[in-house]
Structure prediction request, 206 residues.
Amino acid sequence: MKIAGRNVLDAAPAEVFAAICDPATLLSVIPGCQAVEQLAPDEYAGSLLLRLPGATGTFRTSARLVDADPPRSAGLEGRIEGPMGMISGRVDFDLRAVEDGRADFEPSVAVDAPAAGDAPLDDASADDRSAPDRSAATPIRPRTLLEYRGQAVIQGPLARLDSRFAESLAATLIGQGLHSLNSHLNRARSTVASTSGRPSTTEAPE
Prediction:
């Protein structure tokens, strides 16, 4: 089984990379995830409830972060084992910062013709008056293009699944997980923004 895809997430690459390595975040965004434990800085274990047509089972999961180059890229080698078989494989991902269409405020500026008797504007003055006001430019919101590719081997009763169905199921679960991850990143950003916007309650020393 092979998988590949890309998604744009509403956070900087460093934030995305940190979220991917955070057990609490993984627990909240992986579909069916019931537990995640960090055994070492680059090693994780947990359990996953997997629902398939006509069957539902709990699987033990293990994963290891390999070839990490934060916040640009890394690989995840893992295994899922349960009563219906085992899936083992590896997925590699790359993170690249992208611009979210910087919205510069560029009002149209009309330059009035000089009145009779007024000194004509020289070229430099005309350029200054017609130039858009860049001081009101909207800051660029950091975003990240996440590209992933991987392959897995299915063993046991799970191997009876049609390969196209298995790949479609994997793509659906990954899509749901990335959607949840993006929602998590947006909530975290909103929390930071609201906290930073609160007035300080520290009193000045007497």
Remarks:
- Confidence is low (pLDDT under 50) at residues 101-115, 123-128, 200-206.
- The chain has four helices and seven strands.
